[in-house]
Specification:
By secondary structure, this protein is mainly β. The chain is built from seven helices and 23 strands. It has a domain of 179 residues. 12% of the residues lie in helices and 60% in strands. A hairpin with a 2-residue loop joins strand 16 and strand 17. The longest helix has 19 residues. The N and C termini lie far apart (128 Å).
Length: 476
């Protein structure tokens, strides 16, 4: 009996039997999924497992390289069967699990959120065998996602893909896997579940030091913010159809960013650099906990909320205790006809609130500075409030100590006109006629004394030129 068992064991491992098994596997798989199958050879075989090398799947049975859709260096199949009965095709193959060694494939999600995996392998018709699970070791995956804001889809290439897919409860598929992004070796973890034949899913993402410029198309509207560079960590859950509404996607979790540079076409090419901080995602709302960044040469902090349930809405608060007035000049030159050598220096406290609906926004703020210099003239205790929207820029409660006296004013620039119009009104009191500001103007008329009065300025700003009118009321 021992001799017979031993002889039978070696017999089933013979090349003849291996080739017969390989041919049977190819035939049964091709008939089951209507795809072309190639197997290099059967490396190992026993009553409980089989190892296939150089395994490939093609769109059809012509086995042309251009039609290849999947390959793996090896596939190890563990099963529970009566070998002789299975060989005679009297019972189906009952597979415990399959291990894919160094597989390579492309996975696509269309604009409706449907993955092409089932269609690619024609798995909706498969009845060859049941599989409890699939292990993946050292895989490579090219993932193309058309459900992002990137035109023509977003390609993410992964390497060192390791994971497990639990298939015993189909159509539900549970999985857990890890990988590294091909371009920068940033690690990621992905786990959750999805259903075959529909777009319902729950995915948990964990990223570490990932390049945000690549993944930004999942988070932001392209016309609102664009990222040039920077890294992010995340712990996010992405769920689709949790509320029974097909196509509704919810985000839950936290994202932290570091050394991010970004800009906005919507906000007149505004550039923000060295962004550090975190944001909380809750359904279709984003809460910015605390972010620090630099605008030109000025550091600031930012907090606020973004919502995108129906339309994109935002409420952002910006604060800086050391905002350079020279940086404000560069921004003001976009709207005012200021000379290239216009001079404004000093450090200020700045508070801004930005409220908006998609591309319709309003900015409210206030500014204060203990001291500074404008156009070569010193000032003290400057304060002002301002508003900005698509209609114009408006200044209110302007106040400063200049030339030994006090100046107060209001005004603004109307941007709704074809040519921007500006209107300013200033009241000044007790200006010293011997100050650096007034002496060059009145030295031929006034040798000493204090000057009070009012100045009204109106004009039109045209590119390359400016027309204006002024009125003065003086009190000596």
């Amino acid at each position: 009996l021992v001799v017979l068992i031993t002889g039978g064991y070696f017999a089933i491992r013979s090349n003849q039997v291996k080739n017969e098994i390989k041919n049977q596997i190819i035939s049964r798989m091709e008939n089951a999924i209507d795809r072309g199958i190639f197997i290099g050879k059967v490396k190992n075989y026993s009553l409980s497992s089989i190892t296939l090398s150089d395994f490939k799947v093609f769109k059809n049975r012509s086995l042309l390289d251009k039609d290849q859709i999947f390959e793996a260096e090896e596939i190890i199949v563990n099963y529970d069967l009566d070998f002789l009965s299975a060989l005679k095709r009297e019972v189906p193959l009952s597979v415990e699990d399959i291990t894919l060694i160094k597989p390579r494939m492309t996975l696509i999600r269309d604009s409706q959120g449907t993955f092409d995996f089932m269609e690619k392998f024609n798995l909706s018709t498969i009845s060859l065998f049941t599989i409890k699970g699939v292990n993946v070791k050292e895989g490579n995956l090219d993932y193309i996602d058309y459900q992002t804001t990137k035109e023509n889809g977003l390609l993410t290439s992964l390497k060192q893909l390791n994971g497990y897919f639990y298939l015993a409860e189909l159509p539900k598929v549970e999985f857990s896997c890890s990988a590294k992004r091909e371009e920068d070796d940033s690690p990621l973890l992905l786990e959750g579940y999805f259903f075959t034949g529909k777009v319902d899913y729950v995915l948990d993402f964990t990223f570490k030091d990932a390049e945000i410029a690549h993944f930004q198309y999942y988070f932001v509207q392209d016309e609102i913010l664009k990222v040039k560079k920077g890294l992010f960590d995340s712990n996010l859950r992405l769920a689709n159809d949790l509320d029974g509404i097909p196509g509704k996607v919810n985000w839950q979790g936290k994202v932290s960013v570091k050394d991010v540079n970004l800009y906005s076409d919507l906000l007149d090419n505004l550039e923000i650099n060295q962004v550090y901080g975190s944001a909380i995602f809750n359904s279709q709302e984003i809460s910015i906990e605390s972010i620090t960044a630099i605008y030109q040469n000025s550091p600031f902090s930012l907090q606020g909320d973004l919502t995108y349930a129906d339309k994109f809405r935002y409420n952002i608060k910006v604060k800086s205790d050391n905002f350079k007035l020279s940086d404000l000049v560069e921004e003001a030159k976009k709207y005012l006809s200021l000379s290239a050598d216009f001079y404004l220096e000093g450090s200020s406290n700045l508070e801004i609130e930005v409220i908006g609906l998609e591309n319709n926004f309003q900015v409210n703020g206030k500014l204060s500075a203990k001291e500074g210099n404008i156009g070569g003239y010193d000032f003290l205790n400057l304060s002002a409030g301002f508003n900005y929207d698509s209609g114009g820029i408006y200044l209110k409660e302007i106040e400063a100590e200049v030339a030994g006296g006090l100046i107060k004013g209001t005004g603004g620039v109307n941007l709704s006109k074809e040519l921007p119009e500006y209107t300013f009104s200033f009241d000044f009191s007790r200006f010293d006629t011997q100050s650096d500001l007034l002496k060059p103007l009145v030295s031929n008329y006034l040798k000493s004394g204090l000057l009070s009065g009012k100045v009204d300025l109106k004009g039109i700003i045209a590119e390359g030129e400016e027309t204006s009118s002024s009125s003065f009321n003086l009190l000596l």
